């Protein structure tokens, strides 16, 4: 599932060239993805975190809840060190960035199909270090202080979406978005909405 046709076409071409792999469906948003999985019952779903009018992390949770036997691999442009642990907790088995070489994408696909977790070595070490750290340790980056939903609001704010746009995209009330923003400001120790916007834009530009 990816909202960019060219990206989907490249992935389909890569996978269909392999004798042991076959793409059985494509989708650009949550609705299409859930319908395709219900109809075709694939062994593996490849998910992006940024989808048309929907959110990839929430889609992963939906798929895991409805079809726990469907394995999921995230292929995304976003920083693996920040999102990998979140997608694993949500139900995916692997994370790889779109910039990786074809051979690594195929390795990730096959490893996840086999039921194993796929992460690059640096990210896996980072996650293990966090798990082994004592409670109350300092987060590596400010964004790691945020919950999944707070991070989504923070990211979309940095991408220029206003309150109503974010509410529509995440399918929640505009008032709830303001509640999340208040929590973000508190967690990141930001004094007002202007500072929140500046931080969000700066963070998004580096993803």
Describe this structure in words.
By secondary structure, the chain is mainly alpha-helical. It has 2 domains: 5-131, Response regulator (Rossmann fold, 3-Layer(aba) Sandwich); 142-205, Arc Repressor Mutant, subunit A (Orthogonal Bundle), CATH 1.10.10.10. The protein is built from 10 helices and 5 strands. Strands 1-4-5 form a 3-stranded parallel beta sheet, sandwiched between helices. A hairpin with a 2-residue loop joins strand 2 (50-51) and strand 3 (54-55). Helix 7 (148-158) packs across helix 9 (174-188) and helix 7 packs across helix 10. The longest helix is centred in the C-terminal third of the chain and has 15 residues, at 174-188. The mean pLDDT is 84.
In short:
With 207 residues, the protein is mainly alpha-helical.
Give the number of DSSP strands.
5
Helix content: 55-70%
Please state the overall shape, judged from the principal axes of the Cα atoms: globular
CATH class of the largest domain: Alpha Beta
Number of domains: 2
Which key features would you list for this structure?
5 strands; two-stranded antiparallel sheet; mainly alpha; 2 domains; Arc Repressor Mutant, subunit A; 9% strand; 10 helices; single chain; 207 residues; Rossmann fold
Write the layout of secondary structure elements.
Elements: H1 5-16, H2 30-40, E1 44-47, E2 50-51, E3 54-55, H3 56-66, E4 71-76, H4 80-90, E5 94-97, H5 102-113, H6 121-132, H7 148-158, H8 163-170, H9 174-188, H10 193-205
Parallel strand pairs: 1-4, 4-5
Antiparallel strand pairs: 2-3
Helix pairs in contact: 2-3, 4-6, 7-9, 7-10, 8-9
């Amino acid at each position: 599932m990816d909202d960019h046709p060219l990206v989907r076409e490249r992935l389909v071409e890569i996978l269909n060239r392999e004798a042991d792999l076959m793409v059985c469906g494509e989708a650009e948003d949550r609705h299409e993805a859930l319908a395709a999985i219900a109809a075709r019952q694939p062994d593996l779903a490849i998910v992006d975190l940024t989808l048309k009018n929907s959110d990839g992390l929430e889609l992963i949770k939906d798929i895991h809840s409805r079809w726990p036997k469907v394995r999921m691999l995230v292929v995304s442009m976003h920083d693996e060190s920040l999102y990998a642990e979140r997608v694993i907790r949500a139900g995916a088995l692997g994370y790889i960035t779109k910039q990786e070489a074809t051979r690594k994408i195929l390795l990730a696909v096959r490893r996840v199909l086999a039921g194993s977790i796929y992460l690059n070595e640096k990210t896996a070490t980072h996650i293990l270090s966090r798990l082994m750290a004592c409670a109350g340790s300092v987060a590596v980056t400010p964004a790691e202080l945020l919950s999944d939903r707070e991070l989504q609001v923070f990211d979309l704010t940095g991408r220029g979406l206003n309150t109503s746009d974010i509410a529509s995209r995440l399918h929640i009330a505009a008032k709830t978005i303001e509640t999340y923003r208040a929590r973000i400001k508190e967690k990141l120790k930001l004094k007002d909405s202007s500072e929140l916007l500046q931080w969000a834009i700066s963070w998004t530009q580096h993803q």
